[in-house]
């Protein structure tokens, strides 16, 4: 799994639909997830630490978790099927852990309110992310190719044909 942070909300240039943009810690990959206007407002509200006069839905869920003594350990965006992302809230109450199915936008809005980490499965990142820093990707690939071109078989083999680990 890869921990990601909310980079912000963007608008699709073609259809003007809001997108929540997640980025990995090195800001090398971005994961765009299309959401609706209400979901965008909920995420922006959390990013800006806005406190509504009365609890909105995500605030209500946070309040319920707190009253029941539950902590949100993390959010996991675990799959994408036919362009739809799937997520779970990973909550804990004492020693009891529960996974609660959620839309990624709701999970993100709740995680932001509770300062909980957002994790994405590697397969989802591989399938749906876009490169952010192509130069860094190309530099890393060039360094790896250079490493491969300079390595000799005896550099990999130790004694009885085992791979060296260090």
From TrEMBL:
Signal sequence coordinates: none
Residues in BFN domain copies: 1-132
InterPro entries xrefs: BFN_sf, Bi_nuclease_dom
Highest taxon in the source lineage: Bacteria
UniProt GO molecular function: nuclease activity
One protein family per Pfam: BFN_dom
Protein's recorded name: BFN domain-containing protein
Biological classification of the source: Bacteria, Bacillati, Cyanobacteriota, Cyanophyceae, Chroococcidiopsidales
